[in-house]
Amino acid sequence: MHSTTRVTLPASFESAEIDNLALLIANMLERLIAHNDKIPLLPESLTRFHSRAVPNITVLDYLRRIIKWTKVEKSCLLLTLHYVDQICARIPLFTLSSLTCHRFIIASITVCSKGLCDSFCTNALYARVGGIPVTELNVLEREFLRSIDWRLMCTREVLQEYYINLIRTDSSGGFVLEGAESEVEDSDMDSVSSRSASPMDAQVRHRPSFSLLGTSTVLGDSATLAPQGPTIEQNMAFAALQHSLRKPP
Length: 249
What we know:
Structural class: mainly alpha
Radius of gyration: 18 Å
Oligomer: single chain
Largest sheet: 2 strands, parallel
Helix content: 40-55%
Strand order of the largest sheet: 1-2
Shape: globular
Order of helices and strands: EHHHHHHHEHHH
Distance between the termini: 54 Å
């Protein structure tokens, strides 16, 4: 549903309100998930980021939870999109889906904050916010770094380009870039993809495809983190993977 009142966002991402960034990022990730969830899950596509069940929390609420409790910086939120592109380029079978998105996000925020920010939280807190055991986050952290080949940094210009593209391709129609025309023509939106690589482009080019555990008495909202039951397809995929791992070499 398109908003009747459009919010004008500042020209630079540093000046944007962090909740508006969360809205833009969640909108794009939800569209990726809707696309990739239509693809059958195969055993060879399973990664450390896959969960057996889909969490009962939206991407937007998950991002807002992370923002509230970790005070994550805006650059780290945008870098998550850059990391999606990196991993998709290096691991073609990886896709951002409802089973991988949440674990990917919390691993990305953890690694990025610890690697690039002056102030960051402990893994114990990131894990509690993310709804997974700290031992699992430690494993995801190592896997994440290997997947991006330890390439944590990118230029400010790249992040700015992600920001502009998020605004121009936002499906809610609720945002406009400061100084831009009030209405964006369809032809303009089609041309955005040619300006720079984006997570949407990377996912479409590749073959398209998180149980949140534990509770937190400190952070609250634990009821929203309860996972749904796995589907038949998911159970079959995991069963096939376990069978293959039991085979003798």
